[in-house]
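PROTOCOL LOG
Step 1. Enter all chains and additional molecules of the complex.
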Amino acid sequence: MQNFLYFCGQNISFMARTEISTLGEFGLIRHLTDKLPLQQPSTKKGIGDDAAVMQFGSKRTLMTTDLLLEGIHFNLEYVPLKHLGYKAVAVNLSDIYAMNGTPTQITVSLGVSARFSVEDLEELYAGMRLACEKYKVDLVGGDTSASMTGLTISITCLGIANDKDIVYRNGAKVNDLICVSGNLGTAYMGLQLLERERIAHSHQDAQPESIPAFEGREYLLERQLKPEPRQDIIDKLREAGIRPTAMMDISDGLSSEIKHICHQSNVGCAIYEDKIPIDFVAAEVAEEMNLNIVTCALNGGEDYELLFTCDLKDYEKLVGIEDVYIVGHITKPEFGTMLIGRNGEELELQAQGWQAFKS
Amino acid sequence: MQNFLYFCGQNISFMARTEISTLGEFGLIRHLTDKLPLQQPSTKKGIGDDAAVMQFGSKRTLMTTDLLLEGIHFNLEYVPLKHLGYKAVAVNLSDIYAMNGTPTQITVSLGVSARFSVEDLEELYAGMRLACEKYKVDLVGGDTSASMTGLTISITCLGIANDKDIVYRNGAKVNDLICVSGNLGTAYMGLQLLERERIAHSHQDAQPESIPAFEGREYLLERQLKPEPRQDIIDKLREAGIRPTAMMDISDGLSSEIKHICHQSNVGCAIYEDKIPIDFVAAEVAEEMNLNIVTCALNGGEDYELLFTCDLKDYEKLVGIEDVYIVGHITKPEFGTMLIGRNGEELELQAQGWQAFKS
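Step 2. Run joint prediction.
Step 3. Record the structure below.
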């Protein structure tokens, strides 16, 4: 006990040190949680999907959580607080929809430094309130705390679903169609536009003509600043009588996400480059910035569109649904996770996703 | 749209600015959430108690969340990561027990800077795992993210309870007995010991004899570093056939918490100074440091003991329960929230609680 302080303060330097970047986000979570036994009969599915699944009644209860840190997940130099509030809620709802569930309640915890005023938090809450109203979700609790280091937002979302309706990541079967909603890479191009503008404004000597306006490109900004969870697609699939075999939302880019589905379903995939839905203006901006829009669509992230697989028998129904695109099909696992280029060339998909721990 | 960036970056300076410290934590939460309508039939109780209450089946589902920020809620100079993990889980469980519920699942989100290694996170998880095992709670999800600013821990806990068993803060009635479990001010004195030791070690010229050892005072450190949620008290009350009329856990100090119960129940209270349970060693350390141990018990916080009110008819049963102490009684609201001193003098209780936003 005499050495209590020495032990506490210095154990880090005495211990082996493995950099977190060597494991990556998913490796890290797997490493930390793989020996955690489940003890509650109400727990039906723990870590490893868009949301956890519990059974408290005849329906299932879903639960998902997200932590947003200033400087990592958002930059207040170009993200208005109202948009940030809306987005913080929207990305959690997206996880519940991606399980084919209905979000019902959220809790919000904030860490706020003295830099922020009550009016700032009103703006943030105005955005969260808007998302709650639109998607009929109740804000039922939370925690507000001082912070020494900017703004921290932690949101947890509950939802419900019938057991038979829940769609996991592990249900994809060989020959299933791979579908995405909306378009991909657009949120990333919105971020590039905002970032370019921020840098241009930070140089006092920048020529006004070197600062392109946002006119005609508002949609890209909206995709970055105010994403909408695709409740409409979930509803349309249900109306059409389609139950996806596997589903998740696209937060880290198509490459990373389809690899999750293939890994968990023990299958491979073929994604056709020319089938990936691209927004025309996003493609235009990408060309202007010397970026490959397909790379942005595969790895850009933050689109919060849905990625799902369906049985071949649903083909006719699928093509009738607006804003849903078939981008490929599920293969045997030995085929790997492949991108088929415009000239038929096969490339292994690379999950670039989460590199934030690399310094 | 041309002025998009100007608007975003500069709206703070154009707007009125109200410092958060003028509202305080509870004023702030009330201010931000008072116009939020509840839309989901499954929401039975939103913001304002230890946990939110939902109904997904025949039982009720409880939900609580806590955000812990390095430098605000913990100091890694003297808090070992394993203890921190244990405590982070324990304080959430405490909120569920304070509703008279049973915790069932948690999610854990971490923001981690490059300062931390995989081994550090293993230590943190070892503590969380220990708490989960002891209280039979499942870790079902979470989110791990890079951080530029130290360690951030956000935990959300679900629990269950029968509707008729749930105890809110608003049920205290005139003449009810006011009870607390354990002892108060002890965690605060543990913090003072750790803080004194830290400062002593930071002065290279400190004389060894000026650094008191922790021997005989381990219990104070344990109360600060590894608090236990009082599941045992909840069980004993149930076994004795006692259902408290109001209950909450003591995280911010007795003064602040009894004022919450009185405010929400629209009653007053009389707390008797000489009835407040004090640990003998804590009192000794307080005297050594020229601190008033009763003030520490009233305002120190982090004891995570239970504060509850009971009908007078339960008196005989209550006195038979080990580690439960009757500290006063509920009065009419016009009496106010009073501390009755050793000589019978009446003092208005002051809620010092959460002053962290004051700079």
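Step 4. Note key features.
Chain B touches chain A through 109 residues (CB under 8 Å).
Residues 41-165 of chain B form a domain with the 60s Ribosomal Protein L30; Chain: A; fold (CATH 3.30.1330.10).
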